[in-house]
Amino acid sequence: MKVIIHDLGSEYNDMIKDRCDCMIEADGKYAPCQGCFGCWTKHPAECFMKDKLQQICRITGQADELVIVTKNLYGGYSAYVKNVVDRAIGTSTPFSTYRGKQMHHTLRYGRHDLHKVIVYGDITDAEKDTFRYTSERNAINEGFERSETVFIHDISELEAVL
Known about the structure:
The chain has 162 residues and is an alpha/beta fold. The protein has a single domain (2-161), classed as Rossmann fold. Helix content is 25%, strand content 30%. The protein has helices at 13-17, 56-61, 79-87, 125-141, 158-161, and strands spanning 2-6, 22-25, 65-71, 92-99, 102-107, 112-120, 144-152. The protein has a five-stranded parallel β-sheet. Strands 4-5 form a two-stranded antiparallel sheet. A hairpin with a 2-residue loop joins β4 (92-99) and β5. The radius of gyration is 15 Å and the shape is globular. The relative contact order is 0.18. The model has no long low-confidence stretch (mean pLDDT 95).
């Protein structure tokens, strides 16, 4: 299953829906993570908040390919995309294991194929390095075999890299 998370606005939804099995628009019309860890312990992989991200852990946890389209924000995800990523913490469990000679949380849904981040907007070389590093670390933490970070100068380039 291919899942795309994006912060582009609803005018891009039709184009993106045609390229994935599930699309999540990071539009800010949801609550940010409260840090209660209920999605880890009380009701695994389900957020207690009753909004459009309640099932985000199950959706992203079952993705073979996760694509994140985000505006650059000082070498990191946009605020709305970061909120979606934060709410998906329940894709792992509170238990720890070694992966790649490093300690990580145990995966609730097993391994995945591709974690791809497409970044648009003005970006410096230092911010690109930060983004690549963050994307690679997120991919390892979330159990993806491969990580890819793509930088585009203009949204018109998006269709070619999705």
